[in-house]
Specification:
This protein is of the alpha+beta class. It has one domain: Deoxyribonuclease I, Chain A, CATH 3.60.10.10. The strands form two sheets. The chain has a six-stranded mixed sheet with strand order 3-4-2-1-12-11. It has a six-stranded mixed sheet with strand order 5-6-7-8-10-9. Helix 3 links the parallel strand 7 and strand 8. One of its GO terms (molecular function) is double-stranded DNA 3'-5' DNA exonuclease activity. Its EC number is 3.1.11.2. It comes from Novilysobacter erysipheiresistens.
Length: 267
């Protein structure tokens, strides 16, 4: 019997791809993910390091933005086939936060959901409106007959188990009842929270701020998520966080978060 191929999908908020390209390349070489969603590129399209990534074996598509935001999708030994750039629902929205493509037989949506701080205020209102747009668009993907994944920095702490000190974060936009309720409505469409499905109630984080050695002390948050539609969730094998990347000198405050899945037929 032929063995089924396994694919590794990962999301990574690089917090500045220009500054942290060596971290990204070292991680790609060591872990060799097949599909990667990047967030917070902090670069315009013209300065995205496509040549360096190609030399590392990755084709890429990207949607950059000066100073802030920016998302990209990488494919190992392939080129993503772009299907959407920008989240639908607001033609006035110029922030680079969403990109979608077909990669290795999977519909991959890479997203960088707004932080929403400070709240109350326009940034929090924008976050909630963006989540509503995501919920509407996600409905078009969840019931697809082929595999689909929403992955990225959601800037959502789903439950109190996903934060080292819930009381300390109680006023933050990432933990507000409206934000958690919107995330729950997204999951209710049929999306599987892959990291939680694998780890159960185990405490596991994907982000550690730069304050008081929080990374070294493992005082973190789980805000980077991979949500799988039923067609992909049934093929989920494993999930985890490459925390070693966060512990490198001058690293991003996020660590790559990943899953392994059985590849779709024909891949």
């Amino acid at each position: 019997m032929a063995l089924s191929k396994t694919l590794k999908l990962a999301t990574f908020n690089v917090n500045g791809i220009g500054t942290r390209l060596p971290h990204l390349l070292a991680w790609l070489e060591k872990e060799q993910p097949d599909v990667v969603a990047l967030q917070e590129l902090k670069t315009v399209d013209a300065t995205f390091p496509a040549a360096e990534l190609e030399a590392a074996g990755y084709g890429a598509i990207w949607h950059g933005q000066k100073s802030w935001n920016g998302v990209a999708l990488l494919a190992r030994d392939a080129v993503p086939v772009e299907s959407r750039r920008g989240l639908p629902g607001d033609p006035r929205d110029e922030q680079s936060r969403y990109i979608e493509a077909a990669i290795h037989g999977i519909v991959v949506a890479g997203l960088y959901l707004p932080n929403g701080n400070p709240r109350p205020g326009p940034k929090f209102d924008y976050k909630l409106a963006w989540m509503e747009r995501l919920i509407r668009h996600a409905r078009t993907l969840v019931d697809l007959p082929h595999p689909a994944v929403l992955m990225g920095d959601f800037n959502v702490i789903p439950t109190d188990i996903d934060v080292y000190d819930p009381k300390a974060w109680r006023k933050d936009a990432l933990i507000q009842p409206e934000v958690r309720a919107a995330f729950e409505r997204l999951l209710a469409q049929g999306w599987a929270d892959a990291l939680r499905r694998v780890s159960g109630e185990k405490v596991i984080y994907t982000f550690w701020d730069y304050f008081r050695q929080h990374a070294e002390r493992d005082r973190g948050l789980r805000i980077d998520h991979l949500l799988l539609n039923p067609a992909l969730a049934k093929n989920l094998k494993d999930a985890g966080v490459d925390r070693w990347v966060r512990l490198q000198p001058k690293a991003s405050d996020h660590a790559p978060t990943w899953i392994t899945v059985r590849a779709p037929a024909g891949v």
